Amino acid sequence: MSKETANPPYERSQKETKRVKKPANFGKIHLVKTPRCGAKRRRREELCKAPAMANGRCRIHGGTSTGARTEEGKARARQGNLKHGYYTQEAIEQRRQDRKLLKQLRDDLKGLF
To answer: Do 55 and 37 meet the contact criterion of CB atoms below 8 Å apart?
Structure first.
């Protein structure tokens, strides 16, 4: 094979190779000094050694959710697991009023007969 037809990666010129953009903090952080995840492992008594994110856990363990913060998000979270609505406050109050009305009607009917 001639050099012109076969162009293995080690023979590429710098212009042919794909440039990878480095992050803004490249070279300024020391991976050895970064905080570690620390999540417990199941089988061994050692902790996870992956670098931690801002929440203190690695990208795999993630940590706990902060939950919804906006009123719209909180309302959506409340409705998220609603199956039938039988135990909602509105439904309980409606049944309470219906029972009260039925009791009144029974008492009125007893007075007639």
So the answer is: no
Give ∠ CA 56-29-37 in degrees, rounded to 5: 20
pLDDT of residue 41: 78
User: What ranges do the domains of the chain cover?
Assistant: 28-63
- State the pTM of this model: 0.38
CA distances from 111 to 17, 51, 101 (A): 97, 79, 16
CB of 48 within 8 A of CB of 54?
no
3 state DSSP class of 91:
helix
Q: Kindly report the length of the chain.
A: 113
Largest CA distance in the chain: 113
Angle at CA of residue 56, ends 53 and 62, nearest 5°? 70
Helix (H) or strand (E) holding 51: none
What's the pLDDT score for residue 91?
96
Amino acid found at 82: L
Mean pLDDT of the chain: 81
